[in-house]
Design a protein that fits this description.
The protein has one domain. It is α+β, with helices and mostly antiparallel strands. The protein has a four-stranded antiparallel β-sheet. Strand 2 and strand 3 form a beta hairpin. The protein is globular. 25% of the residues lie in helices and 28% in strands.
Length: 65
């Protein structure tokens, strides 16, 4: 299944190799994978689409405060 995963970084990530998070959506599942872009063979966090959407909504709200 890993071969079907396509990782991407936020458009806000820089190119200098700093702290970046990568996210992947697995087709046909309700799972979002999250990892540290500097440790691509390291641990992944897996959450549901609903949990990811809740996190993003909170992050956007917190950023605008």
């Amino acid at each position: 299944m890993t071969s079907r995963i396509v990782w991407f970084k936020s458009s806000h990530s820089g190119t200098s190799g700093g702290d970046c998070v990568e996210v992947a959506v697995v087709p046909g599942t309700d799972t979002v994978h999250i990892r540290d872009s500097k440790r691509i063979r390291g641990a992944e966090l897996r959450v549901s689409y609903a949990s990811w959407a809740d996190f993003l909504a909170h992050a956007v709200t917190a950023r605008s405060d």
